[in-house]
Every structure is written in C-alpha cells, then in structure tokens.
C-alpha cells in the first residue's frame, strides 16, 4: 500500500504534491519522492525514510514545475532505499511514473526487457512499467500506456509524465485507488481523498480499467482500450479528519473493513493454478528439518497457533508454537535441522527479535513473517515473507492477523508441496476466494453489534473452542479485553469442567466457536453445560452442526474447516469493537498499550 499524488495546472506542482503525500503517509512511510517537469526536463528527487527526509532534500532545489507526480512508499518488492523509491524513470530521463499496487508478472516482463538490453536500477516490480513505456513510446505516452496495460497483470494506480508531452499526466487504475480532483486552474490526483481535500472537494472517481489524461484545464476519460467515456463530478460531503479514516469512525473499524482487500493483496501472485508460489523461500531444502518452531507475541502468536497446526498436519513433522517471551528463556532444543519461524506485524517486537537471534545463534534456519518491509526482524532473519496488510494504525491488530493466517496457510501448503506431500487443492482454491467470504460476513455487522450489547454491563466474558477454534477464541478474547476492558478468558472447551465452569452463573456470556467438524459436536455439548448453569451463549458454527437451545447462533459460510479461522476472526473483531464503542473506550489507542512493543 503506497500513496501517490499528481498535479497538472498553472501553479507550482510541488506544494500540492507534498501536502498530499503528508496526508497519505499513513499508507506508507519507508521512502518518498517526487518528479516535476520543468523546461521540458524531468527533475526527480527521492529519499529513503520518512517524508521529512524528502522535505529536507528538496530545500536544496528551486522547483518551479507546473506538472508533477509524488509517491510515499510502503515497500513490497525491494527494501526501502533511494533506488527502490518512486518515481521511477527510464534511462533517457524522458518518462517518469509513480505506481501503487503490485505487478504480479514483473519477473517475466523484467527478463524479457533485460533480453532486449534494458538495465534495471531497482528491485521493484514498478520499474518494469517505466521500461515497458520506454519500449512502446513513439511520442504518444497515452498510446504507449495502453500497450503497457495489456502486458501487465496485477494491481495498479499509475501516474505517468513524459518530456515529449510536457503538458499532460496519464493516469490508469486497476484494483488500487485513484481519485482525480478538479481545482480552479488545475487537475490533481491522489490515492485517497484526504490528499485532495485542502484543494478541492470536487472529484472524479476512477474505476478499475479506466484511464484519464490530465491537462491544465482539461480532463479526458477512457477505458483501457482507449474508448472515450464520460464521468460525473462528485462533491465530497466530509472534512479532512473524517476522510483520513475513509469515512469510518476509527482506524480499527477502517482496518477491519480493509480485510477483503488486504487478504487479496497478500494472496496476489502466490497461487498459480494448483501451485503455491513463494519464491522468497526457494533456496530452502525443507527435507532437512526434523523440528519446526513458530515464535511470536500476542495476536501474531495466535496466528502461529493456527499455522502450526495446519503445517504439522500437512507435513507430519513436529511443530511447536511458543510465545517469544518464553522461547528466549527456555533453552530450546535447536540445531541445524531446526526451522524457526518468527511472526511479527511490526517486525520490531523486542521478545520476538531476541528469540530470533537466539535461534540463529543455535544454527536454526530462520524465516520472518512480517508486515513492515525493512523492519529489524525481517532484516535479521535469513528469509522473509511479507503480509500485504499495509500500515496498521489501530493498536489492536485486525487486518495484520487475518493476513498472517493467510500467509501461514500458504506457507504450510507450500512446504507440503516442496516435500511432495499431498496438498488439498480444493482448499487452496477456496483460499483464493476468502476475500469474498470476508466481505459478505462484514455485511452482517448489525448481528455482531447486537451480540456486543450483551456484553455491555459485564465484567467478564468466557470464550471456548477446540483445536483451531481454540486459537480463534484466544484471539477473540484478546481483542475484547484490549479494546473494551471487559475481562475475557479463552478456554479449551474440554477443560471447562476441570475448573472454569465454577465461574459460570446466571447472566454469564459464553462465546463459543465450533467450526471443526470432527470436534464441533463436543464443543456444542460443552456449551449446553454452561446454558444449564444460566449462561447466555453466542455460538459461531457451520450449517452441518446440530445446535439446540442456542438463541444466538451465527452460521459461517461453507468453506474448508481450516479456513474458518480466518472467517470467524471478523465477527470476533467486530464484537470487541462494538463493545468498546458502547462503553465509550478509545478503540484506536487502548490504555497501557503501544503499537510496537520494543522493550522486553
Ligand atoms: O508487531 P507484532 O506483531 O510483533 O506485535 C505483537 C503483539 O504485541 C501484538 O499482536 C499485540 O498483541 C496487539 N496489540 C494485539 O492486538
């Protein structure tokens, strides 16, 4: 997830570009850059790190161009560096572009271009687009863009400038947002409304497979095939602060609703027909391992609990999951035949980092699963896989969790595939459709809001589940306590009668998850024991299960049991969210918590 800006008008372009990038910094902040067009020449300035670094660098220049493009990056291909930063330009310095999205077939395209003699400056997928434009450009950048769009697969919002036509910006969109604003004497564009609002509330929403040519006092819209289309100017009814949250009340809610999109981004390019593609790991010989550890903290640890079960079942090698704070002091049994996987959204968690360093010291092969590119954990591990959740701003992790699950399942089946084990291809197929299921569950938000009302006046809530469902309820309970301050505990359902059931009394609320067919009936009979003691139960299960006496039952979509752990996360997040809302808690910044826990 990156942020892009573009200006084509009569004033200097830079002020718009920079204010827009500052509004978009939440979309990515590992590097930033701008290109302006002045006297028929491109001037590109880009810097690794926060936007402030770019601002400081720009003080060395006098920038007067009236046309320009800008970018703030959240890296997906290639570490944060000056060379990997956008804008990317061709060798002749005649074309420059900014890109948000992922070009899935960039490897093949890059190989083709290298064979034609092109040299690449960066490790990014985006650079293939500018090199392709160079290949096709015969003086009409719009025509060249049309040809390039036919070659590239994946997602993109693109803004392109060319010195051969110094009075226009060509923009194109597919699966990444791009909005064009109309100002008195200019047209402006950005990935998101906040970047435009200081200048205008009058916008055009570009749809997928649409393009536009922005000129100083003219805008023209087209399909990707070049057919001219009409678009309506829309006036945005809200202010800047509301826009940063995309119209949502909080970042947590926005991030919950982003899940269909970011799961899609995490899957993108990683399933090719029947095959799972994780090229980042292709040098690993998985047959040498006799022991596997998953290590993480908090929500990431819960994701690991799921990933480990799935991996162990798929490859029949012992897999252990340990909280990082325990792992580092447990004198773990590690040697060169050990694989250790460290999962961390921020990539900076102190305990996880210490555990990783310990595993490396003891000769394990280490893999990081991280969301923040270039973070310490991702740099320290020998191999790294990235979730594509984009910046997660709310302290409570939501989209990072579901994207971790997706990636951990891909990883498990990838290892099975590499070891020649049987892989459930129907499940892989369903995994690629998970974003649609998540989208549909989100439509039932009112149901979950009503469940939240049941918790409003309670001090405690009880969560139960078995196997994968136990990991899901651990996460559900963590979410509830961290944002709503309702004390919530998660139990293995079978353990209930060994103690915790003593706590159940009239009015207690029990949230049960029973989605695993081989044990769901057992959990459902455990909830009957709590109902007999006066508990009110909220049950998440699937249509095949026989449920009696449970007033609040939500049936999850009919997908493979493993994948239910992704789906059930959504209602559990929303229950926590709405409970916190009803109680008036600050959901984005819960008390006593920090987004990144860099101390022990
Ligand atoms: O950045 P990390 O994934 O390493 O963070 C781990 C935990 O601190 C984090 O998941 C924490 O539990 C969240 N607040 C949960 O919502």
Describe the structure.
This protein is an alpha/beta fold. It has three domains: about 240 residues, Glutamine Phosphoribosylpyrophosphate, subunit 1, domain 1 (4-Layer Sandwich), CATH 3.60.20.10; about 200 residues, Rossmann fold (3-Layer(aba) Sandwich); about 140 residues, Glucose-6-phosphate isomerase like protein, domain 1 (Rossmann fold). Strands 3-2-4-1-10-9-11-15 form an eight-stranded antiparallel beta sheet, covered by helices on one side. A seven-stranded antiparallel beta sheet has the order 5-6-7-8-12-13-14, covered by helices on one side. Helix 12 links the parallel strand 20 and strand 21. The chain is globular. 5-amino-5-deoxy-1-O-phosphono-D-mannitol binds next to helix 10.
Features:
600 residues; alpha/beta; Glutamine Phosphoribosylpyrophosphate, subunit 1, domain 1; Rossmann fold; 3 domains; 8-stranded antiparallel sheet; 7-stranded antiparallel sheet; 35% helix; globular; binds 5-amino-5-deoxy-1-O-phosphono-D-mannitol
């Amino acid at each position: 997830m990156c942020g892009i800006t573009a200006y084509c008008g009569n004033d200097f372009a830079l002020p718009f570009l920079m204010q827009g990038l500052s509004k978009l910094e939440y979309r990515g902040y590992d590097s930033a850059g701008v290109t302006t067009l002045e006297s028929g020449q491109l001037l590109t300035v880009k810097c690794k790190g926060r936007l402030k670094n770019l601002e400081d660098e720009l003080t060395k220049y006098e920038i007067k161009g009236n046309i320009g493009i800008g970018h703030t990056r959240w890296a997906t291909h290639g570490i944060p560096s000056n060379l990997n930063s956008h804008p990317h330009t061709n060798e002749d310095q005649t074309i420059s572009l900014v890109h948000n999205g992922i070009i899935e077939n960039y490897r093949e395209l890059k190989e083709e271009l290298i064979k034609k003699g092109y040299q690449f400056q960066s490790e990014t997928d985006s650079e293939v687009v500018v090199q392709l434009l160079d290949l096709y450009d015969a003086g009409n950048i719009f025509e060249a863009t049309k040809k390039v769009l036919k070659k590239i697969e994946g997602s993109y919002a693109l803004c392109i400038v060319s010195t051969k036509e110094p009075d226009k910006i060509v923009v194109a969109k597919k699966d990444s947002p791009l909005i064009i604003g109309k100002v008195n004497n200019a047209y402006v564009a950005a990935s998101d409304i906040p970047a435009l609002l200081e200048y205008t509330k009058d916008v055009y929403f570009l749809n997928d497979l649409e393009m536009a040519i922005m000129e100083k006092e003219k805008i023209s819209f087209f399909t990707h095939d070049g057919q001219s289309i009409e678009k309506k100017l829309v006036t945005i009814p809200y202010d800047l602060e509301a826009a940063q949250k995309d119209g949502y009340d909080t970042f947590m809610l926005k991030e919950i609703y982003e899940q269909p999109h970011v799961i899609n981004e995490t899957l993108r390019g990683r399933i090719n027909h029947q095959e799972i593609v994780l090229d980042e790991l292709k040098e690993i010989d998985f047959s040498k391992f006799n022991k596997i550890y998953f290590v993480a903290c908090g929500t990431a640890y819960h994701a690991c609990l799921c990933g480990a079960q799935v991996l162990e079942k798929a490859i029949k090698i012992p897999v252990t999951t340990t909280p990082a704070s325990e792992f580092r002091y447990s004198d773990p049994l590690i040697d060169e035949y050990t694989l250790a996987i460290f999962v961390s959204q921020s990539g900076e968690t102190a305990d996880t980092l210490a555990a990783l360093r310990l595993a490396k010291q003891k000769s394990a092969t280490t893999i990081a699963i991280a969301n923040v590119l270039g973070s310490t954990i991702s740099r320290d591990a020998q191999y790294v896989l990235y979730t594509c959740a984009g910046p997660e701003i709310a302290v409570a992790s939501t989209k990072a969790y579901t994207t971790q699950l997706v990636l951990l399942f891909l990883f498990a089946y990838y290892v099975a595939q590499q070891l020649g084990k049987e892989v459930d291809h129907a499940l892989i197929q369903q995994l690629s459709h998970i974003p649609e299921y998540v989208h549909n569950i989100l439509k039932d938000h009112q149901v979950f809001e009503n469940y939240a009302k049941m918790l409003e006046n309670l001090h405690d809530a009880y969560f139960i589940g078995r196997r994968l469902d136990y990991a899901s309820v651990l996460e559900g309970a963590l979410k509830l306590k961290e944002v709503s301050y309702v004390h919530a505990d998660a139990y293995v359902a079978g353990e209930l009668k060994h103690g915790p059931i003593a706590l159940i009394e009239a009015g207690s609320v029990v949230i049960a998850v029973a989605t695993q067919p081989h044990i769901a009936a057992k959990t459902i009979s455990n909830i009957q024991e709590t109902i007999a003691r006066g508990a009110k139960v909220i049950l998440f299960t699937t249509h095949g299960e026989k449920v009696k006496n449970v007033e609040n039952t939500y049936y999850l979509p009919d997908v493979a049991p493993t994948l239910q752990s992704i789906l059930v996360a959504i209602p559990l997040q929303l229950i926590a969210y709405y409970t916190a809302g009803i109680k008036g808690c600050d959901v984005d910044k819960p008390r006593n918590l920090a987004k990144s826990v860099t101390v022990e």
